[in-house]
Amino acid sequence: MKKKILIVDDEQSIVTLLQYNLAQAGFDVGIAMDGEKGLEMAVGEQFDMIVLDLMLPKMDGIEVCKELRQRKINTPILMLTAKDDEFDKVLGLELGADDYMTKPFSPREVVARVKAILRRTQLLAEKVIAVKEEDKTEKIIIGEIKILPEHYEAYYSNERIELTPKEFELLVYLSKNKGRVLTRDQLLSAVWNYDFAGDTRIVDVHISHLREKIEKDTKKPTYIKTIRGLGYKLEEPKIDE
Q1: How distant, in Å, are the alpha carbons of 10, 63, 86, 92, 212 from that of 122?
Q2: CA 181, CA 230: separation in Å to the nearest integer?
Q3: Residue 134: is it exposed, middle or buried by C-beta count within 10 angstroms (0-12/13-18/19+)?
Q4: Pairing mode, if any, of strands 99-102 and 77-81?
Q5: Which candidate, 202, 168, 167, places its Cα nearest to that of 185?
Q6: Cα–Cα distances in Å, from 178 out to 79, 116, 141, 223, 238?
């Protein structure tokens, strides 16, 4: 069955370009020309991924992304922005977008990025199915955090944490490398798995978002530590912390 991609953009030339290239790559494509319609389609239909423009009539991409995540709809989102303002990009990621691209862009790069995100989502889904069939569950327990990688679940203080696909993958990777210092480039390569150079700022934003969900005090993190000049390390919290 073909994967379904929703394009939400009000520029007809870009919509036509993306629709053609994604269709040529074997995807079914849905189109919405404003934010309200995009939100309606994303909620009412089953899409495998959303390509979402930042600047939209009726409801901008930030609001669409925020509303979807509040409704617990974790469909992967690739946000498009024509702005050079770093704040907009970072805000989009903080609200739950999985990645962003800045216009103008190569259609081939968009297709490659879509495929990379879907590939990782599919692999994760296949693991969940396999584990359910075999009736066995891998558990990772670090302090008050419990992660069930194959079941796509994470808990903090026995309460389930709502994570986007990328946040979950990042938490799992950090946990499986507990105690190791991981550079931003290592995390970008392992979690985002692009065939081309990425922006390590993406890693910083997702680390910040994770901390908000698993740290009592984000200014004094006890789990995910910043190793100045190197990267990040997830470790077992000390008793006095």
Answers
A1: 29, 27, 30, 23, 27
A2: 7
A3: exposed
A4: parallel
A5: 202
A6: 31, 25, 11, 10, 14
Alpha carbon distances (Å) from 73 to 143, 190, 209: 28, 24, 17
Domains of the chain, earliest start first: 4-119 (3.40.50.2300), 137-234 (1.10.10.10)
Helices (H) and strands (E) in the chain, counts: 8, 12
Structural contact between residues 169 and 98, judged by C-beta atoms closer than 8 angstroms: no
Phi, psi of 160 (to 5 degrees): -65, 135
Residue from 49, 28, 27, 26 nearest 38 by CA: 49
How do residues 30-44 score in pLDDT, each as one tens digit? 999 999 999 999 999
pLDDT in tens, 170-219: 999 999 998 899 998 888 888 877 644 556 788 888 999 899 998 888 88
Whole-structure pTM value? 0.59
Structure tokens belonging to residue 70:
């509040």
Query: Do the Cβ atoms of 79 and 103 come closer than 8 Å?
Result: no
DSSP assignment of 55-85 equals: S-SSS-HHHHHHHHHHTT----EEEEE----
> Could you tell me the end-to-end alpha-carbon distance of the chain, in angstroms, rounded to an integer?
50
Please report where in the chains the tokens 């319609």 appear, as a residue.
Answer: 37
